Structure prediction request, 339 residues.
Amino acid sequence: MSTENLSDFTTLKVGGPAKNLVHVKSEEEFIAAVRAADASKTPLLILGGGSNVLISDQGFDGTVICVETKGNSFVIDACSGGTLTVSSGEDWDEFVAFTIEKQLANLESLSGIPGTVGGAPIQNIGAYGHEVAEVIARVRTFDRTLGEIKSFAASECEFGYRTSKFKKEAGRYVILDVTFQLRRGEESLPVQYSELAKELGVEIGARVPIAKLREVVLKLRAAKGMLVGGGINSAGSFFTNPILSAADAAKLPVDAPKWPQSDGKVKTSAAWLMEHAGVEKGFKLAGAQISPKHVLALSNSGDATAADLIALAKDARAKVLEKFGINLEPEVQFVGVTI
Prediction:
């Protein structure tokens, strides 16, 4: 086994050793490492920022590839905007900051989300009413089944709420780089969330300078303990917001958040459900804790094991199921553990 614990490479600071740990800094190294693992029929785990994963205390009995590939190319036109191709190992928020500096809009709402560029399309990351799928033009991958490079246009990626083709066919496609199409301009997309509008001092639907919106989003995420390095070791939102049938949504209390979807279904807030089911901020179970700042952030208070975090997640999930009849689905990827 490797002498390095995987806890050193995850934001939860949890996870045992890997049998083999490989750091790749170029696309060539990345593909070679994947091919080597597949040729030897070795189980493979790919880690980017380690921000959306809970790994077993026993570690991983296979090869773990830490993706550290860097680089981007971009063309910015005064009329059409900017086309940017970014390596999968680039830090997501550093990339967002780069786009703001270049006066390119449409990513400002996704500021502060931990992880790497390569992880963004897998989860179809989103925040404050916007998703990364809105600005992706192409995802370039290595297809492990066919052993060749394959590119997908946005329309082929099967994007949905916190999902994509790459999540549905987990493990098949290794993301090498992502191409984004961004709008040239200094004004944000219309503000859609009341929390964000209130903090900005504007009405719903207003547009604000992209740098200002980024600043406020970072402030709100920090207040919720959702930024890496903010003193709370978490994986961000542990559960996804449930999407219910209109009939099931109608059974919720009147004051429950309800966001109608284009297909007639209704999204509600996992955090609201947890809070109203008796899940309390700061509640501890062994070394695991519901973040004092936000109920959706299950955290490592210092000496948590993966088993502690799973027990805490089960407790929160059971309370919501008992109170509302809704089974929360994890957003975090589990490796060697189940809930």
